[in-house]
Amino acid sequence: MFFPFLKVEAQDTIHIYEVVKTESLLNTFRNSNVEKIDSSIQTYYQNSSIEDVLEIKTSAQIKTYGGLGNLSSISLRGSGGNHVAVSWNGFAINSISAGSTDLSLIQTGFFEDVKLIPGASSSLYGNGTFGGALELNNSFVFKKDFNVSIGSEIGSFETFKYLGQTSFSNDILHYKLSINNINAKNNFPFTDNYKFEKPLERRKHNSLNSLNLIQNFILKLPKNNIVESGIWYLLKNKEIPEIAGSEYLGNKMQKDSIFRTYLRWKNFGKKHLLTASSAYFSEYLHYTDKLNSFESDYYINSKIRANVFLGDFSYRYYFKNRLIVDFAGFINKQQISTSNYKKIKISETNYSLIYSLKYDFLGFDFKFSFRNEFFDREKYIPLFNVGLSKKLLQNKVILKSNFSNKFKRATFNDKYWQPGGNINLKHEKGDNFEISFKYIFGKIKTDYFNATFYQSRINDMIQWIPIDGNWTAVNNKEVRINGVETSFEHSFKTKLLSNKIYLSYNYTNALLTNVYSVDKFVSQKLVYTPKNNTKLFFVSSFKNISLSFAINYTDKRYTTQINNENNVLKSYFLSNIYASYKVDIKNFNLTFKAKFLNIFDKQYEHIKSYPSSGRAVYFSIVLAYNKK
Amino acid sequence: MNNKIFYLLIILFGLNSCKPKPEIEPEIDFSKGTFIINEGNFMSNNGEISFYNNETGELTNRIYSKLNNEAILGDVVQSMCFSGGFALISVNNSKKIEIVDAESFKHISTISDLSYPRYIIPVKENICALTNGKNPGEVCIIDISKNKITKTIPVGKEPENLILVNNKIFVANGAWGHDSTVTVIDATSLEVIENIVVGDGATNLTLDKNNNVWILCQGKTKYDYSTDTPSRIVCINSENYEIITEISIGTLNDDFYPVRIASDKLNNYIYYVEKSGIYRFNINTPEEKEWFIMGSYYGLGINQENGNIYVFYDNGFTGAGHMTVYEKDANKILGPVSVGIGPNGSVFKY
Fold first, then answer.
1. Which H or E run includes A25?
2. Cβ–Cβ of B16/A503 closer than 8 Å?
3. Which residues, given as ranges, of chain B have pLDDT below 50?
């Protein structure tokens, strides 16, 4: 039997090496709810960037500039893209220049464990978690196994994708390598609502060419030592289209080149876990524009080169399994070279110390973490998180509450960009309180109903506004967000079929409560934040055949800070259908997959003036070899 | 369970069936009044034109959308002019000129193939001149009857405003200090007849009642104070191109680079926008600058019939901008009233 979603549940129960004792800091002390991407949907997006799958089956809102490979950011609980901390195996990967993470650069199939944590605490995750956090993790299994798979996908708008993966593991090591290549013309048809006769046009100057590679290696050494390393390399060339309504083809180009690597060492015993790791990230972005394609000179020729050095250590002690304490330290050195800043080369170093505690008493699970964040030129910022949870009715009901304060540093662009960067910016500060109720009604943990109520504040929010004709970064806004996140998941069987349904509804009321300079902004809704959002995902499997569909409803979104019905993006429904068929031949298996996206050909936009693609079809085939 | 899913889908799709009713088309007399150019927020396709009837005091925003079945005008509406029975609207980041009927404001046609359209003026019946491009810049001659660009004339780098004086087109070259010249084009032969060096960052120009041209030079900036040059206003004779006078304005290294200048021919004043507000001087005593209205303004326009001064506040480009109208003695007679997003100036129809 081939049930993609059941595969994940099986993975969850696999005993990864000394799971409890070597669990990460985040997994041990996090109290917020976690939304996991399971393989029932992930399998169709192995060769796609992560925003596609997040949009279908999490509470995240995605803001993309339309079409494959264009800039894409995540929004949680009404926050901006730079209010979600994105990490790879525990290392923050948000851009140090802009603060956000371009999700179009992240391939879904490269990560076995993708977690979304709405409301994640700053004391654990660090900078910029007003919305929450996104964890991209590679998981490791120490058992004899050898896998090779190759696959390709062909689809609408001249899209060609290729993926190769291999992994090898035994009792002491695990190695995995994934490579993918994407070529797409991205020339989808769309109705240009910004032109007078609203003509049907094709997106032009929108092609993508990318190469991604990731490899992970983990080795068990004698005396409970483990060494882990990873390399992630990415190269992307993207034509940047003009906005809709433009009568011009455009000549904008963007080239991204990213290299990330890390090394981690762990030593564990019956009572302790000692961890030390270091990482080096290098990012290069080259953006060009010229007014005519035949010209040799660029009128915009922007290069940004960023280097990040990370180091951390952590010591944890287990007191009779009821009390766990952890002490951790982080160092983060960031350098940027660009002619866009007043000084060509800028460097900053941040340090932080984290004290964490987890204590089980009287059936309550109490989690506390405290972080001191130190900066080059400033005093430290104390950050804390207090969480309490209780299981009731034979663990069928879980009640949770959590309170944390938060902060976000001004980004390098906010501080140093010329013109308009403001070195005197204050950090954004705020807090988050949430309570949640979870009812597990089935025999397995994935049969549940969950409801989370939250309230967040952001003060001194940074905004770019024109002052004396120059766009300038200022601490300008106060924001209050409250909302509800509900989700329901249920697996059930009929005579022939195994089925699973996921349904979520999110209500977000995000208001600007004050803007320091213009009083008319008071009580205006945050831009690009839908009040209501609903997602439905259903999968049904029969033997080796699987059929799924997904529906996403997104409410209207205002696009100007003084809300105006003339400047809204309309609500939309998106409907997708997925199908797969797998054939097993001894140690080989062959999987055929089909994706029918936006089947009703809905014309919609995430960002005003940037149309997303209409109906699209993708077919893929994957040949895999496995030897245990 | 399957039935439940079916009902759920019905409800979800039903939510999408509520559509707003279209707005009723207004009846507006465009024969006389003030057209306000609202750039809109960059990359948001929400530029628009507002119309203010000076006699009735009626202000109508979004006239292009309202009179064209909610069509979108475009991104960064830069300038507008009238020629023949038409109005031509330059939409910078949509890289186009929209042509509408001057009386009804109904859409007629679109001119494309422009890389960076900026300012547009009428040259003669059905013929307009438009600055376009950056390096090199050019002036495009548009023949409305043919609905196309009939000639392009190379000028300086980053040309901005242009003005017609005695059958000659004066073009200010040099936004952000990338040039320092005024190109003079014969409006009949459409050939360049003169290049005049006036000062760093020539961006805007206006005409006084003596037919002298006053050029606003914003100065040079590379966001490096050591290489910045001061903002100036230079007056040249439109016949022999000699510099008559020049004055320094603003403060060097104050991060403000002025771009608005306008003339009150009736009362012999030149107005310009500086960091702290609107300034003016009499054309006979240009050194005696007067701080006319305090504030932070983005746009400026002068009604040549009565000398009233229209000033525009951008309101951070995130909501409606404001228009305020003053008499020449700084007596406020209107406003502030809300117009579109990012108003940069006005065009008067007398």
1. helix A25-29
2. no
3. 1-21
DSSP A42: H
Q: Note whether B78 and B85 are within 8 A (CB).
A: no
Tell me how close the Cα of B141 comes to any Cα of chain A, in angstroms: 18
> Does B319 contact A564 at a Cβ distance shorter than 8 Å?
yes
In angstroms, rounded to a whole number, what is the distance separating the alpha carbons of residues A168 and A626? 10
Instruction: Round to whole Å and give the CA distance between A433 and A429.
Output: 14
Q: Which residue has the tokens 């001064």?
A: B309
Q: How confident is the model at residue A24 (pLDDT cuts 50, 70, 90)?
A: confident
**Between residues 128 and 147 of chain B, which touch chain A (CB distance below 8 Å)?**
133-135
Q: Give the separation between CA B88 and CA B99, rounded to whole angstroms.
A: 5
Matching residue, tokens 């001061």:
B230
**Is the pLDDT at A444 greater than 80, yes or no?**
no
- The B residues from 47 to 106 touching A (CB cutoff 8 Å) are 62, 65, 68, 71-72, 74-75, 93-96, 98
* CB distance A588 to A627 below 8 Å: no
| Rounded Cα distance, A335 and A320, in Å | 44
Q: What stretch of H or E contains A547?
A: strand A545-554
pLDDT at A468: 67
Residue A469: list chain B partners with CB under 8 A. Answer: 256-257, 259, 298
| Mutation for A interface: B62, B152, B223, most A CBs within 10 A | B223
- Tokens representing B57 are 């005091």
Residue A561 makes CB contacts below 8 A (sequence gap 6+) with A512, A515, A521, A524, A527, B316, B318, B319
User: Which pLDDT belongs to residue A623?
Assistant: 96
Structure tokens at B101: 């009927």
CB contact under 8 A, B318 and A465: yes
Token pair recorded at residue A365? 């699970």
CB pairs under 8 A between A and B: 140
**CA distance to partner chain B, nearest, from residue A608 (Å):** 6
**Residue B23: its pLDDT value, please?**
57
* Of A181, A33, A32, A16, nearest in space to A112 by CA: A16
What CA–CA distance (Å, rounded) separates B264 from B270? 6
Residue B107 has its nearest CB partner, among A196, A492, A503, at A196
Measured between CA atoms, how close is A45 to chain B, in angstroms? 24
A57 in Cβ contact with A556 (< 8 Å): no
Q: What is the pLDDT of residue A20?
A: 56
Q: What is the pLDDT of residues B91-145, one digit of tens each?
A: 999 999 999 999 999 999 999 989 899 999 999 999 999 999 887 899 999 999 9
Other CB atoms within a 10 A radius of the CB of residue B136 amount to 15
pLDDT confidence tier of residue A300, bands split at 50, 70 and 90: confident
Q: What angle do CA A25, A27, A31 make, to 5 degrees?
A: 105
Q: pLDDT digit string (tens) for A155-200?
A: 999 999 999 999 999 999 999 999 999 999 999 999 999 999 899 9
Give the C-alpha separation, A3 to A493, whole Å. 12
Contacts of B114 in chain A (CB under 8 A): 247-248
The encoded tokens of residue A110 equal 């490269």
Beta bridge partners of B302: B309
Task: Decide if A497 touches B, using CB distance below 8 A.
Answer: no
CB A371 within 8 A of CB A384: yes
Torsion sign across C-alpha atoms B147, B150, B155, B157: positive
Distance from CA of B124 to the nearest CA of A (A): 26
Chain A closest CA to B96's CA: distance in Å?
A: 6
Q: Which chain B positions have a beta carbon within 8 Å of A301's beta carbon?
A: none
Residue A567: pLDDT band (50, 70, 90) is: confident
Length of chain A: 628
Q: Could you give the CA distance from residue A298 to residue B321 in angstroms, rounded to a whole number?
A: 33
Give percent of chain A with pLDDT exceeding 90. Answer: 65
